[in-house]
Design brief:
- By secondary structure, this protein is α+β, with helices and mostly antiparallel strands.
- The chain has one domain: Cathepsin D, subunit A, domain 1.
- It has helices spanning 2-28, 151-156, and strands at 31-41, 47-52, 59-62, 64-67, 82-88, 94-108, 114-126, 129-138, 147-149, 159-166.
- The chain has a six-stranded mixed beta barrel.
- The protein is globular.
- It starts with a helix and ends in a 9-residue tail after the last strand.
Length: 175
Amino acid sequence: MKFFHLSCLAIVAMAALPAAADKKTDMEDKHLLGWLEHVAIADLDIELDAKLDTGATTSSIHAEVLSQPSRKKFDDEDESRDIIFKVINEDGDERTIETEIVRWAAIKTKKGGVIYRPVVELEFCLGGRSITDEVTLADRGHFNYETLIGRNMLESANIVVDSSEIYTKKARCPK
C-alpha cells in the first residue's frame, strides 16, 4: 500500500513539472515595476505619477475636459466623437490633448448611482515600455496620483507589481 501511495505522488509530481516550467517561462517575460512609477504620455513631453493598481479594471487619468460631444448623441454617425482635455502634473506642467472618444464607461457610485466617463486610447511610456490602451478621463484632483494604471495596461505590457518598491524605472520609451 505504501508503494502505491509513493507511486501516485511521483506521477503527480512529474505531471506538475511541465506546468512549473511553463510558469517560469511566463515569469521570464514579465516586467517588474513598483506600485508607484513615473509615466509619460507618448510624444507630449510630460511626466505624471502613476499608481499601478491591480484592483482597477481600466486605467484612468486626471483630465480637465475642455470640450466633449454629448453622450446621448454618441452613436449618431453625424456627431463628432472628438474630445479636448488638459492633463496637469504635480509640477503644474500641462498639455492639451485632442482625440476621439472610443466609448463611455459606466461607473457605479458609492450611493448606488451611475456616472458616465469618456474613454480614450492613449499611448503611455512606463518602465521603458510603450503601452497603448483605453484610459477613462476623470477628475482625480482629490487623489494623490494623477494616473492610475489598471489591469488592462498591466496585462498588455506583461507588468508585475512589486508592492514593496516605488520609482524603479524611468518613464522613457525606446526610440
